[in-house]
From TrEMBL, chains A, B:
Similarity comment: family membership: Belongs to the Fur family.
Any GO MF annotation of the entry: transcription cis-regulatory region binding
Subunit structure: Homodimer.
PANTHER family: FERRIC UPTAKE REGULATION PROTEIN, ZINC UPTAKE REGULATION PROTEIN
Stored Pfam families: FUR
Protein name as it appears in the record: Unannotated protein
Annotated compartments: Cytoplasm
Keyword presence, Transmembrane: no
Length: 123, 123
DNA sequence: TCACAGAATGAAAATGATTGTCATTTTCAG
DNA sequence: CTGAAAATGACAATCATTTTCATTCTGTGA
C-alpha cells in the first residue's frame, strides 16, 4: 500500500459511497492532497486487485468505485425528479445467492434498482 | 420501425446472442447491408426505447445488446465469459412493489442483474 | 406529376473516460 | 552515499459513443 493508494482510500471514506475516478481526483485536488489523475486510476486498479474496493458501472458505462465491506444497499429512484431513497436489500441478497449457486455460479455480486414516481411527482 | 432498425434486428438474430454496436456494424458491412455506424447507434437507441432489445455492459464498460424475449426476466451473467442465464424474478417483483409502495412511489419498474463466475470460468 | 417539408442517413468532428508513454522524482537496500 | 527499482504525473493516444451538419430520401397535398 503506497502513498497514493492511501490518499484514494481516504477520499473514498470521505464520500462514504460511490465515486468515479474523476470525482476522487477532483476531491483530492480541492484539498491539499493533490495527486495526478493517472495516479488515481493506477491506485484504483491496484486497490481493485487487492479487493479493497469494488467496481460498478453507472448506466452510461462510467466506472464507479466504493470501499468493499460498506453495507450494500439499493436505491429507489423517482423517474421524474430523481429523488432517491436508500434501501436495505436483505431479501434480494438471499435471492441472488440462491439463484446463482443453483446455477453453479460463484463469486457473486448483484445490482438492483427500483424506479417509479415519488408521491410529489405522481400527482 | 424503419429500414435501419430492421437491419440491426436481422444482424442481432444472426448472432443469436450479445453483440456490441461496433460488432453489429462490422457484420452489416461485410454483407450487402452496408449501413453507417452512426445509424447503428441510433437504431439501437430506438430499439431500446421500444424495449425490443436489451442493454448490458461488459466488464470494460462497452455496451452490448441482444434481442429480448417477451417475458420480463433478469439475468445471471458470468463476469468473465459473458455466459448468461435467464431468470424468473417472482420474489423480486414482490419485493420491489412492497418497498416502493411503502415509500409512496407509484408506477413502479425495476432492474436486477446478478453476476458471478460460471462453473467453467471459476476453475 | 411536382414541389416541398420533415425524417433519415452517414461522414467527420467532438466528447469524455480510460490507458499508455516517458522523463523525472522518490524510496530504499547495500 | 549510490545506484536500481518503483512511483509519479503531464501529456498524448485510444476507443466507444454522441453531435453536427450537409445531403438524400419519402410521403403528402396541390
Amino acid at each position: 500500500m503506497n502513498k497514493s493508494e492511501t490518499k484514494v482510500l481516504v477520499a473514498l471514506e470521505r464520500v462514504g459511497g460511490f465515486a468515479s475516478a474523476q470525482e476522487i481526483h477532483r476531491i483530492l485536488q480541492r484539498g491539499s492532497q493533490s495527486i495526478g489523475l493517472t495516479t488515481v486510476y493506477r491506485a484504483l486498479q491496484s486497490l481493485l486487485n487487492d479487493k479493497i474496493v469494488d467496481l460498478l458501472r453507472k448506466d452510461d458505462g462510467e466506472a464507479i468505485y466504493r470501499l468493499c465491506g460498506e453495507t450494500h444497499h439499493h436505491h429507489l429512484v423517482c423517474k421524474s425528479c430523481g429523488a432517491t431513497v436508500e434501501i436495505e436489500g436483505g431479501a434480494i441478497e438471499k435471492w441472488a445467492k440462491n439463484i446463482a449457486t443453483q446455477h453453479g455460479y460463484t463469486d457473486i455480486g448483484h445490482m438492483a434498482e427500483i424506479f417509479g414516481l415519488c408521491s410529489k411527482c405522481s400527482t
